[in-house]
Design goal:
Elements: H1 8-22, E1 27-28, H2 34-47, E2 50-55, H3 57-62, H4 69-83, H5 88-91, H6 99-114, H7 122-130, E3 135-139, H8 145-149, E4 156-158, E5 161-168, E6 176-178, H9 180-189, E7 193-194, E8 200-201, E9 227-231, H10 241-256, E10 262-267, H11 278-286, E11 292-297, E12 303-304, E13 311-315, H12 318-325
Parallel strand pairs: 2-3, 2-10, 3-4, 10-11, 11-13
Antiparallel strand pairs: 1-12, 5-6, 5-9, 7-8
């Protein structure tokens, strides 16, 4: 009998809360050496009936989406000098003084973190490992890199939004709006030019603007209201039809595979949003003796004692571990 409840997002959060309530959360780093656990994970990928991939920010970091250092300097050196912040995240809180400057900054931010491929092929390597398996992905990442790498969108659930979407500040408008065309126009308006591969670069004279024309400031196509990014920060976040369909698909997938040999593969999930992926994966592993929980994370690879024998914990760079698994 099919269940009547299909909200995968809230369903999985409830599982996370259940894990916190029911377990003492004594942590375990897994059993065996890194090499032993890596070999075990390779076997689990090959033999599992289903793989549920839970991806956090650490996966994109491993793929080269870093928000500071050379990448930040390349794209935001002018903003950094004028406004005094040292990474992209800090720039999100800067007072730019006008909508024209604010959206010039965000056009660059969205472009390099949503419409450019990841600097390293980590997402492609992951796809090559699981493409012939029955899998589903839940992620808190908003950079769209799963689809850019070729993952089937019907097997993806982006819980926290998408850099590629705007939503209106009018709470009665529960729609999202694609921003790709706007981003490209805003990049050109700042003076960026496309190279032979179609990637925007600074012009040879280095002259770029930190502002866009007033008529290019994005507005809602429904009523002309201001827009914001479609990123979950509070209850104003718009869960559009695509989001709801993905939430339902995830819920159904978990239910249909709940008693099978499932590998819950967690990649780069930290402690910002553990209740969406990490804690539910622990709970679902504990409730199914056939299930295996695997965590790959740099310095944050751990499980809990209750599922220690069902756990694989690999402390390391995700990209390097995926190369070993290949």
């Amino acid at each position: 009998m099919k269940r009547f409840f299909h909200d995968g997002y809230r369903d999985t959060i409830q599982s996370g809360y259940n894990a916190v309530r029911n377990y003492d959360l004594q942590l375990s780093r897994g059993l065996g050496t890194v090499d032993e656990q890596t070999r075990r994970l390779r076997t689990e990928i090959d033999t599992a009936d289903a793989i549920v991939i839970g991806a956090g920010a650490g996966l994109s970091t491993s793929a080269g989406f870093v928000y500071s250092g050379e990448r930040f300097e390349l794209w935001f050196h002018d903003f950094a000098r004028k406004y005094g912040f040292g990474d992209m995240y800090g720039g999100g809180f800067a007072d730019f003084g006008s909508d024209e400057v604010f959206w010039a900054y965000w056009a660059r931010y969205i472009y390099i973190n949503r419409y450019m491929d990841a600097p390293k092929p980590v997402y492609n390597d992951l796809l090559n490992l699981v493409k012939d398996k029955d899998f589903f992905v839940i992620t808190t990442n908003v950079d769209h890199q799963f689809q850019r790498a070729g993952f089937d969108k019907n097997r993806l659930f982006y819980t926290q939004g998408d850099f590629g979407l705007f939503q209106s500040t009018n709470p009665s408008i529960r729609e999202t709006f694609d921003n790709e065309n706007w981003v490209m126009k805003a990049m050109e308006a700042q003076g960026y030019v496309r190279d032979d591969s179609g990637i925007f670069r600074e012009p040879e004279n280095g002259e770029i603007s930190m502002s866009i024309p007033s008529d290019l400031v994005p507005t809602c196509p429904v009523d002309g209201s201001k827009v914001v990014m479609n990123l979950r920060s509070d209850e104003s976040f718009v869960e559009n039809e695509g989001w709801r369909m993905a939430s339902e698909a995830y819920s159904d997938y978990l239910y249909e595979h709940r008693n099978l040999h499932v590998l819950y593969l967690e990649l780069g999930v930290g402690l910002n949003t553990p209740v969406i992926i990490k804690y539910p994966f622990w709970q679902m592993t504990a409730s199914n003796p056939k299930a295996v929980y695997a965590c790959i994370n740099y310095s944050e690879a751990y499980s809990i004692k209750q599922i220690e024998k069902q756990s694989i914990c690999i402390d390391g760079d995700i990209g390097e571990v995926l190369n070993k698994l290949r």
